[in-house]
Amino acid sequence: MTDTETQITMFTEFADLARTLGNAHRITLLDHIAQGERPVERLAELSGLTVGNASQHLQTLKRAGFVRTRRNGKQILYSLGDGPVLAVLASLRDLAEFNHGQIRALVADSRGPGNDSEGISQAELTLRMQENSVTLLDVRPEEEYRQGHLPGALNIPAEELERRLSELPANLEIIAYCRGPYCVLSVDAVAALRSRGYTARRLKTGFTNWKAAGLHIEQD
Asked: Which residues does the UniProt record annotate as the domain Rhodanese (predicted)?
């Protein structure tokens, strides 16, 4: 086989993988699976799809190696494949941000003040965690938190925040985070906390990016 033929074979495989990801529903499903192992019924609910439609997309992702399955009784549970799937998702987000910086501005504008200039980077947060000078607040649903979260994070789902404010310390800055850079749960949480007098910022990225970077996570 010539060098050109080898390249074509290799790039054909690249193109096949790219075609698999060329569907917003599949990327949405991958984003939810990145939060933790789930059955198709739950993934369909989270993604706004029918179970049949979600199942078709998941089978396509499985054939390409993006997800894998295991049986738990009568349930089939989906998790990310063994390869660098999180890194691929993170790279897609990075490229989208680079090409379409207005997406982040649009999200910030739609939620009012509290844009990315007031967010905290992963690097800065890592240092603050070493200093024990922040309270980490995970505002994702409890099922996602239990499958993996930032070390020492307190879980108060976004819809419960107003009635559970007493659980938050008043003497430390609160860093809220959710799934990823475009998840608005943390934006809303920061706005609610500031309106109650708390010092709060959001993690600019989120749990998926933290995990993709190989940083330590905990599980309950």
From this structure: 130-219
